[in-house]
Design a protein that fits this description.
mainly alpha
Amino acid sequence: MQSNDLPADSIPPSSKKNLFWLKLAVLAGLLAYIGYTLRRQPADWPAVWQHLRQTNWAGGWALALLLLTPVNWALEALKWKILIRRVEAVSLAEAYQGVLAGLALGFALPAQLGDTTGRVLSLRSGRRAEGVGASLVSGGMQFFVALLFGTAAWGYQLVTVPSRNTPAGWILAGLLLSMLLLGGILVPIRHRLPKAHTRRRWLRQLLTYLAVAGQYTPAELTQAVLVASLRYLTFSFQFYLALRLYGISLSAPDMLAGIGLVFLAKTITPAFNLLSDLGVREAASLWVFAPYGLAVSLVLTATLTLWLVNILLPVLAGLVWVWRLKWSVSPKPMG
């Protein structure tokens, strides 16, 4: 009988090492870019902290931002509830607990690994391999939605921001469209993925995890994608609220395109964990909004505020559920 427990050696050590150095290089580059930008602009960290201390948390912008945080993660929990029911039926409250536990673990572990671990360990059954697959499908859906909106945002900046209209910019647009096309191709052939032949052990294991993807009906996938889209719009609106909280105002198309590009960069850029994810968000925000001449300290304060409200606070709540995770699979009682 095959075990559903996750093998520790599913990814070759050499691949893990290469991935580590790749992420380290990306993180170093992002931090260097932030430092370079701060040196070139009239902004510094003391100014950021001063903006934070002067934030009017009783005002409408801040209250709306805070109130949407549980809504944001409730939508993620609803998506997880829809996808995990092929493995185990859970209530919305149980799904919410699993999502927060995964968020908390993602603070210390590589984000996707921590997120998946927290969700899978929150399940009562031992069907953990299928739980991993459901988590990968959930993350893939959110990735696809961010890619879709981000591609549209990049197309808008290509034709409205002269500095973006370069051969490299159009090549990037082509790559983004190709990724969207690939995602569209994978959906109808998802049933065949577990049967694909490969000599790479880690890839065979990944295809085994994704077997659950073939069990979803078109109606279930549509429902989950709609929830993922609604969640994307929710945290995008939260970013808008954070920008407005510090007096940043642009035309609606420019603001929407900027927000879409920040989340696109955050989605496709690898991060060690949710702490380094903050660096990705900051670097992306500085680059995306650079053509509009915004004060760097205000942009950094807005992105930091969004991270504090939408990530750090839920992580602290999720720590409660980490202690309740089921780290081993117990045999079901007979009778």
